[in-house]
Amino acid sequence: MPLLKYEQIAEDLRTRITNGEFGPGDLLPSGRDLAEQWDVSRATVIKAYDVLRNDGLVVARQGAGFTVVETPIARPAGGRRAGTSRVAGGGPFRRLGTPDRPVPPAHSRKRSV
Questions:
Q1: N or C: which end of the chain has fewer CB within 10 A?
Q2: What is the 8-class DSSP label of residue 20?
Q3: By the 8 A CB rule, do 35 and 9 touch?
């Protein structure tokens, strides 16, 4: 069973992110541009972006579009094949790269009990 258009778009963008065409923080093509490129509606492109957002690869920025996250979260696909549920066969999430973890400020005084 062939992939649906939104799945094809999501897979194409995922591959382009993985290959380094879009790096962390980069803005992805607009929904309008992708809709013209793939000859689909903007709703189909938004559905593809939703797939990537749910997978932890992109984040939506109000008024700016979709950007690649700084530390993408990857989930091994397991034995997922065309025609199966997106959730079936997947493994647990894992972080790619080292996330920045800010150190909380030290308190200047102790709490009294």
A1: C
A2: T
A3: no
Look up tokens 């992805």; give the residue: 28
What backbone torsions phi and psi does residue 107 show, to the nearest 5 degrees?
A: -80, 140
Tell me the two tokens of residue 61. Answer: 């920025």
Sequence spans of domains, the chain: 5-75
d(CA 37, CA 72): 26
pLDDT digits (tens, 9 = 90+) for 26-65: 999 999 999 999 999 999 999 999 999 988 889 998 888 8
The answer regarding whether domain 5-75 maps to CATH 1.10.10.10 reads yes
At 39, phi and psi to the nearest 5? 60, 50
* Position 97, amino acid: G
